[in-house]
Amino acid sequence: MAREKTVGWRWRSRASPLVVFSLIAVIAASAALLLPGLRLRSAPAVSFTLLDGRAVEFAQLRGRPVLIAFWATSCAPCVAELPDLVKLYRDLHPRGLELIAVAMPYDPPLHVQAFVRDHAVPYPVALDVGGVVWRAFDEVKFVPTTFLFDPQGEMIFRYVGKLDIARARRLVAPFLDQTPVTSPS
Asked: What pTM was computed for the model?
């Protein structure tokens, strides 16, 4: 009986590093899958299909800061942040900021069109019916989720929830007024 306890104890002491390593691997894998934007570091090679049918390649936006806002018409925080995004766009677009709102794939296009019309959204809005943009942005888990890219296409900010507009303004400020604006809007 004493010998069985010794063998059992030895097995556990040998397995302990293996168990710890396995646990760390599971935690790291879970974090990579659950935390949005963890893998995304630079602008994905993706095309946005705007409400008017035009396609805008992310590469066309190089040279200016770009804010990509994922949202849905049924999302209360998305609707609540709309006035702030409109003001941000009106204030900073003339100085170089580009903003594209991407409707989630589950949002019906007719609802998106009606919402944009009824709320007089001034910035470009993209439909993502097939989920191509959504996948390119690491399958955004929650809306609103906002990404800010510098003029070279490197992600400098990712925010889940109602956007901290003051912080976004501070982060984008160094990149404004650097290039002439030619916009998809």
From this structure: 0.76
